[in-house]
Amino acid sequence: MSSPTPTWFITGASSGLGRALAVAVLSRGWRTAMTARRPETQADLTAEHGNRALALALDVTDSRSIAGAVHDAEAHFGAIDVLVNNAGYGYLSGMRRRRQGHIFNVSSLGGLVAFAATGYYHATKFAVEALSESLFHEVKPLGIDVTILEPGAFRTDWAGRSMVESSTIIEDYAETSGKRRQATRSISGNQPGDPARAATAIISAFEADVPPLRLLLGAPALKIARERLDALRTNFDAWAETTLSADFPA
User: For the whole model, what pTM was predicted?
Assistant: First the structure.
């Protein structure tokens, strides 16, 4: 941690993990720019924490909106030390100039393992994993750390008001996608993951001398990720002879 009072820039901070992280950062006496489409949702935090909390409007699909929010945050705080891409794509040129910083990209357990019914979601999260790992190799020599956050099921709105389902029901998929839909709906509001505790874990990664490239969040994420590793090894080992046969003869 390069500064005793680091400045965090957190996208998607109106609810869920983003808001919990903003609260945790502010509770430590640090500073944060919190972005959302409706910054008025953070009025309570700005009122409580004064000029250490800055609420900004940001539409992550609008490049001008991104540049404007970053400019306003840097004008207010002077510099951004930590970028948390919780709701989309971010901006890092200020860190590159200063040769320091930490980027947290929010992926998911679903960026490591794919389940039925959520193929598009997994495709985006697998892409976040690849983009982030490539970024890690690019910016590490510049003094910038990258951590991929991989939460499991957390008690947020992900499976509630934030989830959009297709109205098409295909009976052939009742035992696969259908069961997954039902399970996802049934757990909403009772997920084991606590956003506030996840925020504390993220801050621990930020404060570490050697931050992790990947940080799983929650016991189910760790369990399923380990099962995924075992399944990959079993697959690779079973087909090792065929794999090696694809090379030119020695």
Answer: 0.87
